[in-house]
Design brief:
The protein contains 4 helices and 7 strands, in the order βαβαβαβββαβ. The protein has a 7-stranded mixed sheet, sandwiched between helices.
């Protein structure tokens, strides 16, 4: 059963991108989504929020050299899992992104339904009863395939 109480934050300056990503979450039955259009809005919600966000999905261009997103998300107690997309420095290997602990990084312009599904499999481990939690090949780094 899907945990409908999960808090999801989407950050992108373009309204169309926020809507498209929100619809991806909605198609997976996640509806507790807060879209923001600026880094300032994201920081305000994260820093002053009463409870942590389970997922943050952010366009890397939003931080454009003003904030180290990886450093911000890695040890932030207010964020359980983050996906940074449209990151030009993501490795272009056999897989199109990588993860460190609670942060996934992708070079894709927008996350796909598959990448959102993989992200939610890490966060919502109780979504499919009888299935074990997602296997992580190494505690510090995990490769994530995106379509």
């Amino acid at each position: 059963m899907i945990n409908k109480a999960l808090r999801i934050l989407i950050a992108d300056s373009q309204h169309f991108h926020r809507m498209k990503i929100e619809r991806l979450f909605n198609s997976l039955d996640y509806y507790r989504v807060a879209p923001v259009q600026s880094l300032t809005e994201l920081l305000t919600l994260v820093d002053y929020g009463c409870e942590p966000f389970d997922v943050v999905v952010i366009n890397a261009e939003l931080a454009a050299r003003s904030l180290d997103l990886l450093g911000f998300f890695l040890d932030n107690p207010q964020i359980r899992q983050a996906l940074i997309y449209n990151e030009g420095t993501a490795p272009l290997q056999q897989t199109s992104g990588f993860a460190q602990e609670n942060v996934q990084i992708s070079h894709l312009t927008l996350p796909s339904k598959q990448s959102i599904s993989q992200l939610m499999a890490l966060v919502d481990v109780h979504a499919k009863p009888g299935k074990p939690a997602a296997h992580k090949p190494h505690p510090l780094m995990q490769y994530v395939a995106h379509a």
